[in-house]
C-alpha cells in the first residue's frame, strides 16, 4: 500500500496515477509492495529530521527510512518540495519530472541501488530515467 501525506501546502494531484506508477516501478524490479509512506514537507521539516536522525546539518531533497524485508518493499520517504523545486530550476527540468525522479529514487534505494560513488550514482540516474518513463 502506498500512501501520500502532506506537511506542507503542496499536493500531488492525481494520487491514484502516482500510486499505480510506483507499484509498476516496484514490480519492474521484481519486488513486492509493502507499506510505503510518502511525506511531502518543506526544507525546515526535513532539515530537523536530517539533524535528529542522521546527524547531518544540511538541506536535502529526500530522506528515506527503509523497512524492506527481503523482496517486500516498505518504508517512509520524506521529500522536501522546496528542495525539489530548486533542483528542477537548477537542472532546468519541469518540477513534475523532478518530483517523479525523487519519488522513484526512494523506491530504488529500497530495491538495493546506492548512490555514494560516481559509478553507483550513474546507475541510479539511469534507473530513475527508466522508471520515469513508466509513468
From TrEMBL:
Cofactor: Zn(2+)
Keyword Hydrolase: yes
Keywords from the named record: Cytoplasm, Endonuclease, Hydrolase, Metal-binding, Nuclease, Ribosome biogenesis, rRNA processing, Zinc
Domain of life the protein comes from: Bacteria
Cofactor note: Binds 1 zinc ion.
Catalytic class of the enzyme: hydrolase
The EC number(s) this enzyme carries: 3.1.-.-
Record localization: Cytoplasm
Transmembrane segments: none
Binding site for Zn(2+): 105, 109, 115
PANTHER family membership: ENDORIBONUCLEASE YBEY, CHLOROPLASTIC
Function summary: Single strand-specific metallo-endoribonuclease involved in late-stage 70S ribosome quality control and in maturation of the 3' terminus of the 16S rRNA.
Family per record: Belongs to the endoribonuclease YbeY family.
Protein name from the UniProt record: Endoribonuclease YbeY
Native source species: Flavobacterium arundinis
Gene that specifies this protein: ybeY
Amino acid at each position: 500500500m502506498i500512501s501520500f501525506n502532506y506537511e506542507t501546502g503542496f499536493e500531488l494531484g492525481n494520487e491514484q496515477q502516482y500510486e499505480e506508477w510506483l507499484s509498476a516501478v516496484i514490480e519492474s524490479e521484481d519486488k513486492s509492495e509493502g507499506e510505503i509512506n510518502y511525506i511531502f514537507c518543506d526544507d525546515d521539516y526535513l532539515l530537523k529530521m536530517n539533524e535528529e536522525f542522521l546527524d547531518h546539518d544540511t538541506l536535502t531533497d529526500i530522506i528515506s527510512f527503509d523497512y524492506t524485508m527481503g523482496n517486500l518493499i516498505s518504508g517512509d520517504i520524506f521529500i522536501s518540495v522546496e528542495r525539489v523545486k530548486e533542483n528542477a530550476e537548477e537542472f532546468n527540468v519541469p518540477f513534475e519530472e523532478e518530483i517523479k525522479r525523487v519519488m522513484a529514487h526512494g523506491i530504488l534505494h529500497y530495491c538495493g541501488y546506492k548512490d555514494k560513488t560516481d559509478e553507483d550514482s550513474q546507475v541510479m540516474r539511469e534507473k530513475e530515467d527508466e522508471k520515469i518513463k513508466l509513468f
